[in-house]
Design goal:
Length: 586
């Protein structure tokens, strides 16, 4: 049975062991125990043993910490046993703004690194740059994604870079790194897709559309184009069966990826017991069959190209225009491995990129001065013609703008790692903290990147200028990890930055053109936001927000779905109407 390697020991410990112990104790007592007492003993044995185990683990951990000259990570002391109230608040909070606020409040009470210890299980949360650096760099080999994550994601990610640790991860990283070199990533590959996307936006005055959803599709198309050379947006050449099949495969891919991600996310949330919720069916079967049927013919074609190259005795190294998939099939004969890598890279690229582009547009709509600065820089250095790496290099303000978007709205807001062995965490307060083995830590990038003690009193203000001039100081540099940090840093950074810069240049040109031709500008369409997804009015002021929504600065409800996103979508429109009081035109 799937997941049984973790489920069976957990069930033995929590369900079988307590009554077994009670039965032994009752047998050992020479007197006849009344039935009611016996039943009570059995019933009480479950929570009692659980609490005892939890306390003894805590005591052992404290002793171990002391013996190493360290302290325990501060434990949250809830009002109810096993911190059940913390769990209830967590579950009740529902929206990510609430979860974020809970994390901030707990942080104020317990510091930047604390242990929620819900249901007796250590669960560390940290937004301390010193701790995060230790986890991601200094004790890298000890902080892994872990066998439990691999087990839950196996049917989706197979044996891919996202799903592996240790030597296997090193193998994947070494295999893929050369293909991500900036020399394989050119703005000209993405410009046609971005232009087609911009041309498809409805320009009739007042027609609102969800640009977040459209950017998801654009990110998918660009990732597929770069990985495989296949064009999802082009119409089939004829109405043949192949064309119809291709269209159908393209239409299903995005939804199937989202579905598979949700299923794995649900398993992670449920924890060890997840197989019990899938006894009658495997929900991944359908989405995975759609995803695998999409990639199968594409891999076939890559294999055919490889065979043709071999026949002509062409060296792949001489061919500059080789795609990611071609380089992969040159490097391995293993079809399944190729398929797994494609799925892993698609997962890594689609939602992160869509999130980054969405928040660029959101900020442009929210910050008129920044929008004007960006557009005037584009007019000055890249007003027309092909976009090249040189034109991107000249976008100094643009680069600062993107960094600031990634700082305040990191597409991957939280990351998670698990210890193999105990670890001593150095902290920014100078205190050494003891973290037990086999324990998870949530790395709260988003909190760290909005932390006033790292970024100054204006930490929540969108201000690209902090990245210009002298640039960041050491503390700030160490407090920015949107691309992750250390050996497992994002491989796709050159890809993502090339796309985002190209997108911003073409968007600015497009906005100028629409303004000249139609007198229209892009606005956030607050009135089009689906019911129940608009930001509560109270959160739009510093006092009413109580620290949510960047202390009242945001106008949209930011949620961590799979990545950071805007609840209900980012609805925008081209309009000439006067600006709403709380919005601005770009
Ligand atoms: C703005 C966009 C992006 C951001 C903010 C971002 C961020 C990240 C982060 C935080 C990780 C670490 C994940 C983890 O430890 O579980 C990661 C890993 C990775 N990213 Fe990105 N990413 C972006 C776009 C992309 C793109 C476009 C690609 C591919 C074309 C890509 C490929 C990868 C790969 C392959 C890894 C795994 C690296 C490893 O485990 O060694 N990313 N990225």
């Amino acid at each position: 049975m799937k997941g049984s390697q973790f489920l069976v020991p957990a069930l033995l410990k929590t369900v079988v062991l307590p009554p077994l112990l009670v039965s032994c104790i009752l047998k050992a007592i020479p007197l006849r125990v009344p039935l009611a007492l016996g039943i009570t003993a059995y019933l009480v044995s479950f929570p009692l043993l659980f609490i005892l185990r939890s306390h003894s683990a805590a005591i052992r951990s404290t002793r171990h910490a002391r013996s190493l000259g360290a302290v325990d990570i501060p434990r949250v002391h809830g009002r109810w046993p096993l911190n059940l109230d913390v769990l209830a608040d967590w579950a009740k909070s529902g929206s990510d703004e609430e979860v974020g606020r809970m994390m901030v409040l707990l942080g104020r009470k317990y510091g930047k690194t604390y242990n929620t210890r819900v249901l007796g299980e250590d669960q560390i949360i940290s937004s301390d740059p010193t701790v995060l650096k230790h986890v991601l760099v200094d004790d890298f080999d000890n902080f892994v994604k872990g066998a439990k994550f691999k087990d839950r994601a196996e049917a989706f990610l197979g044996d891919g870079i996202f799903n592996s640790d240790g030597d296997r991860w090193k193998f994947h990283r070494a295999l893929m790194r050369p293909f991500f070199h900036p020399s394989h990533i050119s703005p000209s590959l993405f410009a046609p897709h971005i232009n087609a996307f911009l041309d498809s936006l409805p320009t009739s005055s007042g027609a609102a559309f969800d640009v977040q959803a459209k950017l998801g599709q654009l990110a998918l198309e660009m990732a597929i184009k770069w990985m495989t050379g296949e064009d999802m947006s082009s119409d089939p050449v004829d109405h043949s069966k192949v064309g119809a099949e291709w269209r159908e495969a393209c239409e299903g891919l995005g939804g199937a990826m989202t579905e598979a991600q949700k299923i794995v996310g649900k398993r992670v949330k449920i924890g060890t017991l997840w197989p019990l919720f899938e006894l009658t069916h495997d929900p991944l079967t359908k989405p995975m069959s759609i995803i695998r049927s999409f990639f199968r013919p594409i891999i076939d074609r890559a294999m055919e190209r490889k065979a043709a190259r071999a026949e002509l005795e062409e060296s792949p190294d001489e061919k500059e225009d080789l795609r990611f998939i071609d380089r992969l099939v040159e490097a391995t004969h293993d079809r399944k491995l190729v398929e797994d890598q494609l799925i892993n890279v698609l997962l890594a690229s689609r939602d992160t990129l869509a999130s980054c582009l969405t928040f660029c547009i959101y900020v442009l709509g929210l910050e008129p001065k920044m929008s004007a600065n960006l557009r005037s820089e584009v007019r000055a250095v890249a007003a027309q013609g092909d976009i090249t790496k040189d034109s991107i290099r000249e976008l100094r303000y643009g680069r600062a703008f993107i960094n600031e978007v990634l700082r305040l709205f990191p597409p991957v807001p939280l990351n998670i790692r698990r210890t193999l062995r105990p670890s001593l965490l150095p902290t920014s307060s100078g205190q050494m903290m003891y973290m037990p083995g086999n324990t998870s830590i949530i790395l709260a990038f988003v909190l760290m990147q909005r932390d006033k003690t790292v970024w100054g009193d204006d930490a929540e203000v969108f201000d690209p200028s902090r990245w210009m001039g002298e640039g960041l100081d050491k503390k700030e540099r160490e407090g920015f990890m949107s691309w992750n940090y250390g050996p497992r840093m994002c491989l796709g950074q050159p890809f993502a930055l090339t796309v985002t810069n190209t997108f911003l240049i073409l968007l600015c040109r497009h906005l100028d053109r629409i303004h000249q031709e139609h007198g229209l500008s892009l606005q956030i369409a607050f009135d089009a936001q689906p019911a129940g997804t608009g930001l509560p009015e109270a959160w739009k002021t510093a006092e009413g927000s109580e620290g949510r929504a960047r202390t009242g600065r945001d106008r949209m409800w930011v949620v961590a779905d799979v990545v950071l996103a805007i609840k209900g979508g980012l609805w925008v429109k081209f309009g000439s109407a006067e600006r709403p009081a709380d919005a601005d035109d770009t």
